Structure formats: structure tokens, C-alpha cells
Amino acid sequence: MSLVATSGGDALVLARTHERAAEAAREAEAAPPAAEAALVGGAPVPVLQLEGISLSFGGITALDGIDLAVANGEIRAIIGPNGAGKSSLLNVVSGLYRPDRGMVRLGSERFAHVPTSRLAALGVARTFQNLALFKGLPVLDNVITGFVHRRRAGFVRQILSTPQARREEAESRAASEDVIAFLHLDAVKHQLAGGLPYGVQKRVELARALVARPQLLLLDEPLAGVTLGEKQELAAHISNTRDAYGTTIVLIEHDIGVVMGLSDRIAVLDYGRKIADGTPDEVRSDQAVIDAYLGVAHEGETELVV
Amino acid sequence: DEQFFPLQSYRVGPYAAGGTGFFGGFIDYLNLINIRDGGVNGVKLTWEEGETQYEVERGVEVYERLKSHTGVAAWNPLSVGIAYAMIDRITKDKVPLITVNHGRTDSTDGRVFPYVFPLLLNPYSETSGIVNYVASREGGADKLKGKKIVVLYHGSPYGKETIPIYKLLADKYGFSLEQIEVPHPGNEQQSQWLSIRRAKPDYVVLRGWGVMNPVALKTAQKVGFPVDHIIGNVWSNSEEDVIPAGDAAKGYVAITTQASGAEYPVLQEVIKTVYGAGKGNLEDKKRIGSVYHNLGIVNGILNVEAIRIAQQKFGKRTLTGDEVRWGFEHLQLDPARVEALGAKGLFHSINVTWDNHEGDGRVTFQQWEGTKWKVVSDWIAPDWAFLRPIIEKSAAAYAAEHNIKIRTSDDPPVSQ
Amino acid sequence: MSDLLVLEGLAATYNHAIRALSDVSLTVRRGEIVALLGANGAGKSTTLKAVSNLLHAERGQLTRGRIVFDGRDATSLPSAKLVRLGLVPVLEGRHCFRALNVEENLVAGGIGGGLSRREIAAGLERVYTLFPRLKERRRSASGLTSGGEQQMSAIGRALMARPRLLVLDEPSMGLAPLVVETIFSTLKGLNREEGLSILVAEQNSTVALRYADRAAVLDAGSTVLAGDAADLRGRAEIKALYLGSPGESAAHLAALRRPSPADHAAA
Amino acid sequence: MFDYQFFIEVLVGGLLSGVMYSLVAIGFVLIYKTSGVLNFAQGAMLLFAALTFVSLVERGVPFWLALSATLVIMVVLGITVERTVLRPLVNQSPMTLFMATLGLSYIIEGAAQLLWGTQVHGLDLGIDDVPFEVGGVLISQFDLFAAAIAGTLVTTFALFFRYTRTGLAFRAVADDQFAALAVGLRLPRVWAAVWTAAGIVALVAGLLWGARLGVQFSLSLVVLKALPVLVLGGFDSVAGAIVGGLLIGAIEKLAEVYVGPLFGGGIVAWAAYVVALGFLLVRPSGLFGQKLVERV
Amino acid sequence: MTTAAHPVAGRRLTANHLGIAVLLTAAYGVIPFAGSDYLLDAVLTPFLALALAALGLNLLTGYAGQVSLGSAAFLAVGAYAAYNFNLRVHELPFLVSLVAAGRVAAAVGVGFGLPSLRLRGFYLAVSTLAAQFFVQWALTKFGWFSNDSPSGVIDAPPLAVAGITFSGAVGRYLFSLTVVVISTLLAIRLLRSQVGRNFIALRDNETAAKVIGVPLLRTKLLAFGVSSFIVGIAGVLWAFAYLRTVEPAGFNLDRSFGILFIIIIGGLASIRGAVLGAAFMVVFPLLLSRLGAALLGDIFNSGVLEMSQRIVIGALIIGLLIAEPRGLIALVDRLAEPILRRFSRPLSRSTQS
Ligand SMILES: Nc1ncnc2c1ncn2[C@@H]1O[C@H](COP(=O)(O)OP(=O)(O)OP(=O)(O)O)[C@@H](O)[C@H]1O
Ligand SMILES: Nc1ncnc2c1ncn2[C@@H]1O[C@H](COP(=O)(O)OP(=O)(O)OP(=O)(O)O)[C@@H](O)[C@H]1O
Ligand SMILES: [Mg+2]
Ligand SMILES: [Mg+2]
């Protein structure tokens, strides 16, 4: 199964890549029912909902009464100046930070403090702004580990290699090989993750998050430090993932070209407050956003247009 | 012909001071016999050292390495741990193991431990010797009633070994007893000595080891306990134990099986013959006649005499380990013989038999005068009769546990 | 214009085994901004580490080549000396002093540059004007600040040492567009007004080429192209090969990743 | 009836011996603060310093001359260590450095014994260790002297780290050696300075402990007393070393006297660790230690 | 310590397999017949016991990243537990007491591993010293553990499995070898399984591991448990196959450091490294002292030689760390790489493409 959008080499606008990839996906195989429902069924069900989240660190307000709903199957970007609280928001959702106030709703459950150890079981996966790979493991093992919460066999069974343990191992290996192929990591799959160039490590991290087919995928600057060409490719992968698996994606990214091309809706944070929320076009022309974040020099120029 | 002594010496590490003294003395005496007498009846004495740092596994390594040397006479590790690890091995290899002044108490019972010789003193007789000395200071055993003794012991199996014996003796003589542990290594004893101060004992017995001893003396001074009422056991009786304590040690009394000092003829001969020929083993000549050095000398005398006695039976040649064992089992040196060996006053006498491997060594007590030890008591006899049944019981238990047939006097002394 | 930094045929390995550079040559003239471009793993960061003599700290070694800074052979000058001579790096991965607060980080930069107390105070003001965000966070432990704030601290810290040649490794990474523009235009300003020279490795070639005077392109550890930034901006093969199209970059990457016997020749 | 007099006596005794622990702990803290590594060779350095001093004195060198000579030797040692061990191992993992200090301790111990022999030496600093009574509690002049020295050391170092630029540089080096190199901090100087300082602390601690225990191999074991102090106070806090020392000293003594009998005594060996552990569970980086700075 | 190799690459595996086969053949087929008693009893048996202990510690420290300075305590627990099982439960087959001893050690290990849930780095390392001192104290304090032997020293029962008694140097060697080989195989299986990945994940990035769903608590305690289990079994070998008598003092801090030393010198997170490190630790000092005695024995006494040796070993450790901080095994691999490459070039092409 290859869902890679191969484009000419001309200047391309990401929206187009997105379209084409989606097309390709539909052609390749029918989208899984969940995605279908989300896309076809109209009224989106929120997969993630933040209700009045506030968080401060000894006088520094990182988040201030954030409300945010993320619908099933959408790509939701969060942008904002440095230190606006974007990563903190993801940390709250993944339970690494405990908000001072507010609730997080994941699927059907509501939490004052999301239990990190149950996060994967709740169908949430994430990547980190600064790489958080297992440097001492080969790429393949890094990705297999992303499957860990599905495992049931205890360590004795694993040592003795009982049928159950074998089945699980085979299953997670197969899933990992799939994702690795999907993200063009075959060539490096036996290398230790720690020795790879930065851009490749970013991709491995994405693979590790994807392998478990999460319902909700949280990406914190997945494209930072990646070569321009690969940026296009990865962006395509991200949207393909949504299209193919119906994964809901929350994306933090500073590359405006990518964000505008990729996301369905964009929330803009500044000093911990949400200053705008809407479609890419709405956000792009919002004066507050331009002042705080985009700047003026950009008329239409994104990094991807060389 | 030659008779070989494998030496598991320790000249490095925390216990190096004792090791260099003891093995230095031992080697000095062997040298004396070689130089002065040309060996024992013409049989040269040889040796090889293997450094153990007082560690059991290194001791075992040295054992395995040197055991196949020809003419091994006896092993003399001066380490309880190494000695224990060797018991099975030397019994199988039929070579005697000499643990002068230390080692396993129940190995006194030659019926169960045919190859092990805790010569002169074992922990139990030491205990009894100390109590007898206290009695003599108080003016008789009956005066012990109502007195209070604190035993300050090193927190190790060695330190704890005498706990039950002190209890028995306390019951027997009616003194009250408190035993306080100092954890290894013992470089801090504030709380123990505060407890002692509160207990107000008449005597404190120091059953120490290494750095614990000077610290005990220093701390005693700090809490104002009179130092001449502290009595050291046989591993707390050397210069190394008192020198670091400086003035705090002046007046401290400790048990010994061999007096210190270089005035004995045998030591004079060592100085003249061995050190005169530049073959002395001690780097620092001031240590000649020190407690450990003299223990080494005495140990040398005992080993050499055992060989000499065995040679009388088996011939003047290289003996097997088993034959040397026979020599040890007949090692009887009365005061006259000790005097003839130039060791009158150095140690008293020994009387080893096939079933008593300790040999009824006598003990004496020395007091530290700031620069040297001075003997302050007669040669005291421990209460062997009282101890023997206890030892036999323990040995019998060991025999049962290890399926050892208890030897009787009818058993052939040696397989020839 | 005279040459400030000259790299001649650098080759470098990590752990005596992994070859990272095989032939890198480039020149930075006084008062010039030079951009260093190339795919992931091309060796940009390694080159920059070699320039500031930091390879050894990551068990890397320069096996061939020469580095001349300001007319003197800098191949084996200790990094502290280089900083004092005015060659100051901002490294990949930010490397803030995590337990020190933001201001202490900046001060440490000044100390490294051998500046006086007064100069440090003045430097702080300068950096805070450039990055107002840092002023707000000056008492926060660097390790706890946001990614972008750390990046600003790292750049600010280097500026504290009053560099003559600033060596930047992906300064735009993780920074908001507005900040990227501010940084680059500020640097350009310093470049114009104070003659600050800059060697900058960037993935964000759009911005880099817009501000740079010249650029060099690295591929698999060798410089394969060098020239006027404006020129390069227009050239199609740059886009195609080094700034990449997906299929090609994947293939390229695969080729790069497969250890070849040459990788080990250096050992 | 609770014996308050005795309680206070034990408490005071504990506090005073705690000061002696602090003295050893400071040496550790200095090095941890600048290289993030537990210097296993601290004990060996202590032994080496004390042994050198005593041996010189025993060879007839006057007190002050011997002290100066030993100081010079410790400085040389510090510089040598920087040159031969730390510089080539720059930016390595703490584990690697830890092992290197273990190697170092072998070398120093071996050299000390080879040079000066394995004999036991007495050491008299001329300060009385005979107690006098204050309100029924025994206090020795020596303890007070040791406390004064420890106090001075701690104050000096604490002020140094807090208020000088060099102190800031030291902390930066400990934090990230790679970054420290990059910003141009002179690591060789920093390390040489710190190891020299640690050598001097080792000398001071070695002399004071040596006067207690005698100068002999076991002197190097006193570092075990310092470890729980470090854990409790925080590896990188000079103030923690002193507070931790006092606490450990007092708790250890009180535990031995009041809890020990329940277990049959001799619990000092581990009681300190258990107490330190208890504290750690509440504060994982010790009382005053730098908190782990980490976020995603 | 993060970039240790994981045995996966195809080429290396085959080369490894070959090497292992040769080693095992030699160990079982040649050495028992060719080796002297000294070699077997005083070199190989302690080497095996230490290698096993190092393997155990490596699981915990090398793979799972939790530094422990208390290994000797778990050696002691293993030894004393086996002794007591053997003594108190009648007719208990020795193998059963061996495994039971491992389990006791594991339980104690889990107990002392609890602080790892909060502590890291040297703080954790120092807190494991609590285990070191506590266990030594308890074994000394409570006579029950040593069957009230007045000296606290225990004597090893004979090694008998299924009616066969492994006596004599060869028997003890073969017994140890077999225990080590089986334990190592099991350990390798564990490391290749998800549990092994979890260990490394824990070590390399705890937060990421937690987010992904690695059960941190369970994994940490498991690491402590499995590690102590293996170390405990090594303790049984040390006590029963090698020394044949033990006292608590033998399990002191130096021993713990020795084991840590093995894995760091050998190479963290490498099983081959543990073996190599143990060989280095056991054999090198012996060689050095033999050499010293042979060359300089006439001039200096054993003490001087020993101290010089210490200096040499210390210098060697530092030199080795400078040459290759990832340990002997990395050094060996690096040096062997060109040779292996020459031999296996065709192979490497086929497995990699
Ligand atoms: N654990 C923490 N302790 C203290 N302050 C924190 C912590 N986490 C975040 N902050 C502060 O909260 C603010 C928001 O940080 P956050 O990382 O969420 O920003 P961000 O929007 O992701 O920025 P960037 O784009 O630079 O990554 C920052 O000013 C940061 O310093
Ligand atoms: N510390 C290291 N140890 C081993 N290999 C390394 C190390 N750092 C880099 N490498 C390798 O050296 C080569 C060059 O890497 P370098 O980091 O210089 O590339 P780069 O151009 O900066 O890439 P990126 O754009 O991803 O940052 C790569 O193959 C990389 O895997
Ligand atoms: Mg962020
Ligand atoms: Mg880079």
C-alpha cells in the first residue's frame, strides 16, 4: 500500500498535494468505516474537547481559559508565537501537565488530569517538539514499541515465546513494517535511531506515533528541521494518514505554508489565550494574528513556494 | 630436599599493617633457620607469597595456584575468611591449615577437624582468659559478682562469635553484661560510647578490628571513660591499634599470646643473622619486636618445630602435608624447650594432641605505655575444662551436618 | 574584501568509523553572509562543529583539511580561544544550560567571550531588545522554557560574546515566522552596520537565500556547489536536488544511509 | 522516665560528628557541581593528602612547611587530573566519568601506599580532643574546631558559587559541557581549579579525620559516611552538605541509641541511608539539590 | 550510554553465531579436558559467576538505565537463600533451591527497586547502597540466616542435580557453565522481546515511553526483579561452586563496584561486553601479578608489586575509557570491523538490500 503523492517538481501548493493524496487513498482502498462516518455523516463528533483549560507555572501563565473542540477526522492546527502555550496544550492533553483549571474530554471520558499511562489505550499518540526517540534502539524497534499498549503477554510468556506472545510480536512487527514502508524508512530500519540525521529522526518519531493507528494524533512541530522536499512528502503523509485511517490530527507547526495547506481549522494562541479560531483563510486575514504571529512581509509566500 | 610454605599474605589494603608484620616475622624466622641451621635438619625452607588483600577469593586463587607445589608443609593465612574457605580444600588435599590465635573455635576439636590447627588460642579461650584476667585484677573470681562488663564488638561474624560465651561466663561468675555492636568499619562510635557512659561499667572489653580500635580509645577519652579499664582482645592488641589514638591509648591493656619486644634471644638472633645479612623482611626496622612481628616469629617457631618433630618419625626429608600434620598433632613444647628455642618470655608453652588442636596456649596482658607495650600480668590459663564440652558440641554438630566420622584415638594417626 | 574564514578540503569522521565529511571547502569573506545548504545528513552541522573545533567533544575527528580563521590556522585552536577571537557558534539542538535561568545563560555567553561586567550588561540590553520574549522569561530556568524561547536564548547567548563571525546552525528552527524575519533582518543589520560575518546552515532555504550574499551546497559530505545566493535561488537543479523533491530525496537518503566501504576508509 | 540530659547529649554528639561528615561531603559537592559526576576518588585523595602530610612531618619537616608542601602536591594533582583524565573525556556520560574516577582512585591509592608505605600513623594536630562539660553535655574543643572549619569552607564556597561570575561559569560547565565549550568557557581552568579545591578540602578533611582515626588506609572509607549526607542535602548543594551532615549525624546517633536496641544494635551502617531515602521520596533531588530540569 | 548496539543486523548475527558456536564447543568440549584444576577452579568458575552477575546488572543498568551499586547484596541474598532452602526444606532438589533463591533475590530486588520510581541517576545509585548495607547487616545480625553458625560463615552443600553430584573442579565448572549458558539464553530472549525494548525505552526517554504506553512502574520493577534474579543465581554459583563457603563480609561494597566496573569496562547494554568485562576483571589482574612476579619478583616484595599493579590497572581503566567510552566490546568491534568486512562483503550486500 503506497499512499505517497508523487508530484512533478514544480512549485506546488500543498492543498493540491492533499487533494491528490486523498484521491489516491480512495482509489487504493475504501477508507475505514470510522473515517467514512466522520466524513460522510456530516455533524462532526468532537474527539477532543478542552473546556476552560488554565495552566500557570509560578507566575507565568502558559494557558488561560482555553476552549477547543477537535472534530473527528479533522486536521486541526494550533499556531502562535513562541511561548504562546502550544506545547503546553499538548502536554495537558497527554497528561504530562496537570491543568490548574478546566477539563479535558477525550472520546467519552472527561478528565481533570489525563492519565498519561492510559493515553495510548485511549487511542491518543503524539510526537514531541524536541526529539524523544529511543536512541539506543534501531528504527524498527522504535516503531514496534509504539505498539506496546496493545500487548498482553507477560514477560514469562515472551521469554517462552508462547503462541500468544508470538502472535503479538508478529502482529506488531507487521504493522511496523507497514508504517516504515509508508514513510520510506526501509533503508534505515536496522540503524540505531540516535545516529540518524535530524530530519530522519523526526520521521521515525512520526512512524512510532502512527503504528498504533491512533484515533487522535498530536503532532508538535513534526516538520521542523526537515529538508524542504521531505517537508512536502511528510505533509502529504500526514494528510494521507487522516484520509486513510480517519485519524484526527492536532498539529503544531510554524511553517505557515504547511499549516495553511494542510489544516481544516486553525486555532491561534498568544500568551496562553486563544486569539483566533477558524478556517485557514479566516485566520490568514485576521489582523490580530498578523500582528502577533505572521508579520506582514509574507503576502502569500510560504516556505514551500521556492 | 625442601619444605614449602605457600603464603597468602596481605601487604596492601586496609589490613596491610598486620599482614606485613606477621608475614614479615614468619619469613624472618624461616630465614633464620635457613641461614643459621641450613634448614631443618638440612631440609631447606622455601616459600612463595601471593597477595590476597585479605580478600577470600584472592586467598582461594592463591591456594589453587600454590597447592600443587612440591613439599607444601602447611598453610598459614592469618585470615578467618580465607581459612574457612580452605577447610574443605585442605582436608581433601591432606595438608594442615594453621590459624594461630584465630580461626574456627570448634576446629580445636581434632576429632572432627584433623587438618585444622587454631594454635595457642581460640575465640572462646581468649574470652575466658580475659575474664580470668579481670578476676585477677579484682582480686579473685568471686569478686566478679556484681561487677559490670561491657563488650564492644565489631559488627561482623568475627565480632559476634563470642557473644554466647560471654553470656555463659557472666552467668557463671555473676557479673552483669552488656554487649554493644559497632558496625564495620567503626570509624564513628559516638553513640556507642555515650551508651557506655550511661551504663557506667567497670570494664569495657574491646573486641575490635582495624580502625575501630583507635577510634574506640579516642571516643572513650571523649566521654571520659578511664582507658586502663578497657581491655583489648587479641585483634585489638597491636601497635597499629594504639598509635593512631595517641595519648588516648596510654594505659590501655590488651591480651596477647606472645609478648612484644625484641629482647628475647630468638629475636636478637633474627636481628643479627637475618637483618645483619640484609635479608630482613620488614622495611621499617623499628617494627622488629612489634606484636604482629612477634606473632609471625612464634608462628615460625611452631611450624618449624612441627616439621622437626615429624622428621623424627618420618625421616629427615621433604615431608608430605599429612606427615607435617602428624608433627603438629605432637607439637609439645614445654617451657624448657621454649627457653631452648630462645623464646622464654616470648610465649609460654604449647601442648597439641591429636584431639586438642589448640594446644592449651597461655595468655598474658600488656599495657600500652605510649611508645611500647609492657607486660602487666602473669601467664594466665583460660578455663579449658569449662570450654571443652561447648566446643565438642559445636564440632559434633558440624560433623553431623557434613557426614564426618568422628575420629577416635584408635584411628591410625597417619596413612603412610 | 578579505577572507575571514577558509575551509580547505575538510574530511571528518565520528568514532573513527562513520564518515560524515569527505571534502568540504568554502570561504566566508569579511562582512559576508554565507548560507550552507543541503539535505538532512549532508554534513552541515558537522562542518559547523568542525569550524568551532567542537567535533572532539562528540567523538568526532577531523581527518583532513585546514581551517583558517582571520589569517591564522584555527584547525586546532581550543574553542574557548576561538570564541575570544570572535568566532562564536550556535549549535544544533540549542544546548541551553538547562538549569541556569535565561539571563544566566546570556551572561555565560558574555563570560565565555571574556567581556567585562559593563559590556555584559550592555549586551543583555541588546539581546532583550532583539528578543523581548526573553526579557519576560529572564528568571525562568532555560530547560523549562518553550522550544522557541530556547532557540532565542541560544542565539542571544552567542550574540553576547560580540562575535565577528557568527556560526549558526538552523537558527529558524522552531521559531515563529515573525521572529525568523526579525532575527534575519537584525543579523543583516549587524552585518551592514558592524561588519558581522555570518555562516549559517539552514533548511529554510527561502529565507536563507533571501538574506545571504553567497551560498554553498553540501551533498553527502562534500561541497558540490557554491556561488551567489541570488544565482542559486534561480537555479533549477538546486531545487530539484538539494532542496528536494520527495521521490528523489527518499532515494537520495537511502543511498546516503547505506554504509559504503568508503565510510570506513578513514578509520 | 525519658532522660532529656542523655537525649541532648546524644543529639549534640550527633550534630558534631555530622560536621565531620560534611567536611568530606563538601569535596564531593565541588566536583559534582562542575562535572555532574560522583567523584569516587575523593576518599583516595583524602588518604593521599593526609598520608603525605603525616609522612612529611614524621620525616622531620616542620608543620607549616609540610602543610604547604602537601597543598602544592594537591594542586599539582588537580592539574594533572584535568590534563590526563577530564580533558580527553570531555562531554562523556556521567557513568563514564564515574568509572574514570574509580580508576583514578586505584592510581592514587596505589601511589599513596607505594610512596609512603602501609603503616598506620598517629596524627596530632595539637588540638585537644578532651571534652569539657557545658550544662552536663560533653563537648570537645576538637569538635568545635572542626565545626568552625567546616562552617568557613561552606560559607566560602556557597558565596563563591552564588555571587561570582566564575561560580556561574562553574554551574554552566556542570550543566552542559558541550554548550560550555561552545560559548567559550575555559573548561580546563574550571576543572583544574575545582579539582584543586577538592584536593584542598580533602586535605583538610583528611587531617581532621586522620587526627581521629589515625592516618591509614581505612581513612578512605570515611567517604561512605558522606554519601547519605550528599543524598539528603543534594549532590550539588554546598549548603546541603552542611545541613545534610548535621541531620545525618544527629539522626544516625539518635537512631542507634533509641531504635537500635529494637534490632539488636549496629544499625548505623544503613539507618542513615534509609533516612536519606525517606527524604528523597519526598524530594527526589535532596533538600537543597538542583531539581531536575526537564520538559518536552 | 545511550547508543549501545542492539544485536539485530543480519551480518553481525551470523558472525556472532559462528563465534558463539566455537566458544561453546571449546567451553564444553576442550576446556574440561585440557584445563588444569587451577584454571577451572580459580579462574574460570569465578569468571563464570561474575559474568553472570554482570549480565544481571547489565539488564538493570545497561539496558533499563537504572544504576545500582548494590549488586553484592543480591549475590548475598541468592547465596544465603539457596543455603537455607537446601538446609531447611528436606529433599529439595538443588535446582529447585537454585531457582527459589533467584526468586528470593528477585523479591528483595523489587523491594529495593521501589525508590527507582522516584529517583534517578546518582541519587538512585546511592540509595541502592541502602540495600548493600542493609543486607550485609541483616545477614550478620540474624544468626538464623547462617544456621546460627557462631562465625556467621556457611558451608556450601554439594552441587547435586538429578542424582549427579558435580564435585571436583571439572564438575563445578560444568555446572556453572551450564547455568550461565541457560541464563544467558533466557536473558537474550527477554531482551529480544518487547520487554527488552521497554527496558531501553525506559532508559532512553522515560517520558516518551510513558506516553506511548510502556508500563513504567511494571517495567522498572521487572528490571529490578529480573536483574536481581540473575544476580542471585550468580551468587549461588559464587558461593557454592566457587568459594564453597561464604561470610557476609565477602559481599561488600567493593564487590558491587567490581560488578558495575565489569559492565562499564565491557560495554553497557551488551551481553558480549559483560562477558568480556568479566574476563578482563578476573584474568587481567592475575596475568599482571604473574607477570610482575616473574619480572620483578626478586627485586620487590609482593606488596610493592601489588600496589604498582593497582596503579597500572587504574591507568588502564582510564586509558580504555578515553580510547572507547562505550567499553571493550565497542573497541573490539571497531578493531574487528575492517577484518569482518573483508570476509563478509558478499553477505552484507545480500542482507542489506
Ligand atoms: N514545565 C514548565 N515550567 C515552567 N514554565 C513552563 C513549563 N512549560 C512551559 N512553560 C512556560 O510556558 C510558556 C508556554 O510554553 P510552551 O512550550 O507551551 O510554548 P509553545 O507555544 O510551545 O512555544 P514554541 O513555539 O516556542 O514551542 C513558555 O513561556 C514556557 O516558558
Ligand atoms: N554525534 C554523531 N555521532 C555519529 N554520527 C553522527 C553524529 N552526528 C552526525 N552524525 C552523522 O554524520 C552525518 C552528517 O550529519 P550532520 O548532522 O552533519 O548533517 P546535517 O547536514 O546537519 O543534517 P540535518 O539537516 O538533519 O541537521 C550523518 O550521516 C549523521 O548521521
Ligand atoms: Mg512548543
Ligand atoms: Mg544539522
From TrEMBL, chain A:
One of its GO terms (molecular function) is ATP hydrolysis activity. The keyword Cell membrane does not apply. This is ABC transporter ATP-binding protein. Residues 48-296 form the ABC transporter domain. Involved in beta-(1-->2)glucan export. Transmembrane domains (TMD) form a pore in the inner membrane and the ATP-binding domain (NBD) is responsible for energy generation. Keywords: ATP-binding, Nucleotide-binding, Transport. The keyword Transmembrane does not apply. GO terms for cellular component: plasma membrane. It comes from the Bacteria. Gene3D superfamilies: P-loop containing nucleotide triphosphate hydrolases. It holds the Pfam family BCA_ABC_TP_C. InterPro entries: AAA+_ATPase, ABC_AA/LPS_Transport, ABC_transporter-like_ATP-bd, BCA_ABC_TP_C, P-loop_NTPase.
TrEMBL record, chain C:
This is ABC transporter ATP-binding protein. Signal peptide: none annotated. It comes from Bradyrhizobium forestalis. One of its GO terms (biological process) is L-amino acid transport. SUPFAM superfamilies: P-loop containing nucleoside triphosphate hydrolases (SSF52540). Keywords: Amino-acid transport, ATP-binding, Nucleotide-binding, Transport. The keyword rRNA-binding does not apply. Residues 5-245 form the ABC transporter domain. One of its GO terms (molecular function) is branched-chain amino acid transmembrane transporter activity. PROSITE patterns: ABC_TRANSPORTER_2. Involved in beta-(1-->2)glucan export. Transmembrane domains (TMD) form a pore in the inner membrane and the ATP-binding domain (NBD) is responsible for energy generation. Belongs to the ABC transporter superfamily. InterPro entries: AAA+_ATPase, ABC_transporter-like_ATP-bd, BCAA_Transport_ATP-bd_LivF, P-loop_NTPase. It comes from the Bacteria.
UniProtKB/TrEMBL annotation, chain D:
Pfam families: BPD_transp_2. Its main location: membrane. Keywords: Amino-acid transport, Cell membrane, Membrane, Transmembrane, Transmembrane helix, Transport. CDD domains: TM_PBP1_LivH_like. The keyword Nucleus does not apply. InterPro entries: ABC_transp_permease, BCAA_transport_permease. GO terms for molecular function: transmembrane transporter activity. One of its GO terms (cellular component) is plasma membrane. The chain crosses the membrane at residues 6-30, 37-57, 63-85, 97-116, 136-161, 193-215, 227-251, 257-282. It is a multi-pass membrane protein. It is found in: Cell membrane. The keyword Kinase does not apply. GO terms for biological process: amino acid transport. Belongs to the binding-protein-dependent transport system permease family. LivHM subfamily. This is Branched-chain amino acid ABC transporter permease. It comes from Bradyrhizobium forestalis.
UniProtKB/TrEMBL annotation, chain E:
The keyword Ligase does not apply. It is a multi-pass membrane protein. Keywords: Cell membrane, Membrane, Transmembrane, Transmembrane helix. It is found in: Cell membrane. Signal peptide: none annotated. Pfam families: BPD_transp_2. One of its GO terms (cellular component) is plasma membrane. GO terms for molecular function: branched-chain amino acid transmembrane transporter activity. InterPro entries: ABC_transp_permease (IPR001851), LivM-like (IPR043428). The chain crosses the membrane at residues 12-31, 43-60, 67-86, 92-114, 121-139, 159-188, 221-243, 255-271, 278-299, 311-332. CDD domains: TM_PBP1_LivM_like. This is Branched-chain amino acid ABC transporter permease.
